[in-house]
Amino acid sequence: RRVLEVGAGCALPSLVAAKVGAGHVCVTDRTDSALVHAQLAAERNGFDHMSFQAILWGVFDEPLLEVGDVDVILCADCFYTSLDFDSLLATIHWLLLPSSAEDEVGAERPVQPRLKSCLVAYQERSTSRSIRHLLAKWNLVAMSLESSTARQDRDAEATSEDSVHMFEIQLADDGGGSAGGVRTLE
Length: 186
Hints:
eight-stranded mixed beta sheet, 28% helix, 186 residues, Rossmann fold
């Protein structure tokens, strides 16, 4: 499986993915300094199946195109600044789209879409911020990865300042399902 981490920073999720057997891990961040540190960590751990790419969320230029096709996107604590939410979800949407490939004669042809997903860890910093309207804008749906029991246990022990949520983002169902929104696993 090919894994990509957006906004990697120190790239801990990428390093874990490499350790547990991802076929290839692409580490992305907007700053070269973060990528240099992530590359050092990969080298120190002996991971040779990782690549590093500077990308800007919402900018669909050569660096993003060089990323290639991915199966899983990791997004750990990237929903930090509200001004970045739209461009981050635009980038996630683009990465989740079905890919195409070229046959031997160079003609582009559609490829069977694989189920791609973006796994998100998000620390709730304010109850007044939401990505629900942006999920709908980008034809995405988010599903909580926490059971109701786990949420109750966590909520009983945690305050809103240290509440961490985990969810999965996918393209919304085009076959009559709800376009954009949030679903809960029960």
